[in-house]
């Protein structure tokens, strides 16, 4: 199916089995604000490492899995089947960092991250700059053998789990630069931690950087490279968002179909009612189309960076909107049960909404695709 090799199928089966180990903890996490007992959470982390499902996107010479992009998609697809962010233990560090890290950065942050000893977060988004990264106002000013960083970043996902942050700021030249900032560091403070629609242990605080002194050794790449790294991250994350949406949609269809098969209404299974059957049929058809798109993109992404940028936007747009439609139908099929937090449809209905926003909103993806269509034409794009 989908032209997957025996190795691909084995990786998918391994990731699926691990996801199935995590699923029984979902309701416990939901009712505890996303938290699990520390020993349980640590055991999940160790298990991901043991199974080779951690840092799958990193080269083997750094201790990573060395998986193909398609194989990474297969793993993240299973991550998407698990609610409450429990599947995030199958973590993918910043793969682009491996290509530009200095020997010092490699030893201090990269290798420990690949080994699962520390984790990173991204501090890029600001109150007035979301998908339009060039609109950031955070600054980095050279001061002798260091830079002074000032700015306030929003939605710093996983800050509470991170040992360091990638912080993007503008230089006096107005070029973008990216820095590694250890957490905690003098001048770094949490302004506040908003509550979000989903229930995850990974929080998204607003973080202020106030005169944070960062040694020159913490500059990633060269001055002016910041946007290139952001684009690389966006391409990867948009594809992985799409992959996780596939897994979420599959889980929803499985659960809704099983419920509809056993729920008796008027003497017959709910699934035999034509309007319900149509919702299930539409959902599985859309999943098939989205999966074909995502797998094909994963196979072809390395051929042309600009085309890859457009394709990742296309699959993120299609898969995230598809999964939201499937979630809405699943809640409807479950009826009142679908509005209960203990029900997977209710949790995924909330969790999937952000997939149409972060890593570039659906409207931004449409603009990217339309721009590439104007430049390449239909044949050049698809």
Q: How would you characterize this protein structure?
A:
A hairpin with a 5-residue loop joins strand 4 (164-170) and strand 5 (176-182). This protein has a four-stranded mixed sheet. The chain folds into three domains: 6-102, Butyryl-Coa Dehydrogenase, subunit A, domain 1 (Orthogonal Bundle), CATH 1.10.540.10; 120-220, Beta Barrel (Butyryl-CoA Dehydrogenase, subunit A, domain 2), CATH 2.40.110.10; 227-381, Butyryl-CoA Dehydrogenase, subunit A, domain 3, CATH 1.20.140. It has 382 residues and is an alpha+beta fold. Helix content is 48%, strand content 14%. The mean pLDDT is 96. The radius of gyration is 21 Å and the shape is globular. The two termini are 22 Å apart. The chain has helices at residues 6-22, 26-31, 38-50, 69-79, 97-100, 103-114, 226-262, 274-300, 305-334, 344-351, 362-381; strands at 120-123, 139-143, 146-153, 164-170, 176-182, 188-192, 206-215, 219-220, 264-265, 268-269.
Say which CATH homologous superfamily of the largest domain is assigned: Butyryl-CoA Dehydrogenase, subunit A, domain 3
CATH topology of the largest domain: Butyryl-CoA Dehydrogenase, subunit A, domain 3
Low-confidence stretches: none
Helical residue percent? 40-55%
Beta-strand percent range:
5-15%
- Global shape: globular
- Largest beta-sheet characterization: 4 strands, mixed
Reading off the top of the CATH hierarchy, the class of the largest domain is best stated as Mainly Alpha
* Structure class: alpha+beta
- Termini separation: 22 Å
Mean pLDDT: 96
Summarize the structure.
It is built from eleven helices and ten strands. It has helices at 6-22, 26-31, 38-50, 69-79, 97-100, 103-114, 226-262, 274-300, 305-334, 344-351, 362-381; strands at 120-123, 139-143, 146-153, 164-170, 176-182, 188-192, 206-215, 219-220, 264-265, 268-269.
